[in-house]
Amino acid sequence: MTASTQPADGLITVPRGLAGVAVTDTEIGDVRGAEGFYHYRQYDATELARSASLEQVWALLLDGALPDDAAAADFVAELATLRHLPPGLSQLLTALASTAGSAEPLAVLRSAVSAAGTSLGLRPLWDGNPQSRRHDALVVAALVPTLLAGLHRFRNGAEPIEPRDDLGHAANYLWMLRGEEPSAVDVAALQRYLVTTVDHGFNASTFTARVVASTGADAAACTVAGIGALSGPLHGGAPSRALDMLHAIGTLDAAEPWLRAALDRGDRLMGFGHAVYRGADPRSELLRDTVRDLADAGRDPALVDLAVHVERTALDLLTELRPNRAMGTNVEFYAGVLMKLVDLPPELFSATFAVARSIGWCAHVLEQTTDRKIVRPSARYTGPQPTRR
Ligand code: ACO
Q1: pTM of the full predicted structure?
Q2: Which of these is catalytic: 39, 55, 169, 332?
């Protein structure tokens, strides 16, 4: 805003939702909405999702370079030491699970991460050094699947299962949920989903985690804040809703009338639209390929056919009814289908997104700590004017 257009209160007005505003610099990655492209550091993220392991991508985000085999093995070994519950936390998880009632797993996870931060004795990032900050950010993200799987099992009357040091992050998550060796097909599909979603520019939860990091708070506090932002249906709370929509539609023939009625009511179709992409979300395209592969391997081909049909039908309707706004499916549309095909319980879909995104938050939180400026914007007061003596 130029001086001549600057309002008398001296505040700069930014677009609603901070859309299009660069609030900081980052070397971690970016989303180029108009191009339908996103990247982790200097690598095409969808290429990495097809070719790299979750641990390689995690090391890339955290430390800045794709590790060679030896460095990747070291990182895997480091993660293995951080994945175990700290002493005493198991009792806290039992208590949390038994009082959680019908609360969303993501809400229970939020409390569990907070408790883990206390059990681990995490100190404010402000008081640490680069090594301790890296350790704290890493341990919180490494613990997320352990906490989630433990809570899920407690809530279902089962004992938690210890992580295995010989399994990777994706495989461990399935192992700790099920207590049986996960199939290679399940691990590969889940790993692809996790790599696809570890990071995505300055999305609401990443920004939130960084705001908290800018205050110098501890790494668990940053992750708890990120989970809170992620939990909303406009962000990470959509995959089970998208799958619910497919179940509600039920058949190929029902798709058009069902979707038209929903749009006529003014409903938002879950898994469609995006704040940055104008058109196709590359993550959705990648996950569509992945669920097609799973269908070819015999995993619920009818559901995959229905999803592809609903996608096409809804996009035609959106083009007809909202011609001025190009829209595509977002990552959440096929994420729910993928998680169903690898047999994750639907109540864990959104929380599984947190397994991935906590990895991105961990890198962003660390990057934020290199800037010692607190994030502290302003709001324009529009209420009644106060009286002043
Ligand atoms: N279904 C129907 N109409 C839609 C949809 C949708 N899914 N998305 C946007 N629109 C409409 C909006 O209603 C809006 O019209 P309005 O101003 O008259 O209400 C118009 O399109 C323009 O909206 P945008 O500016 O494109 O959307 P915005 O950036 O505000 O929101 C969002 C993006 C939240 C993803 C939105 O598209 C949405 O609510 N989608 C459904 C929920 C969803 O899928 N969430 C997961 C997002 S992906 C992620 O966070 C990982």
Answers
A1: 0.93
A2: 332
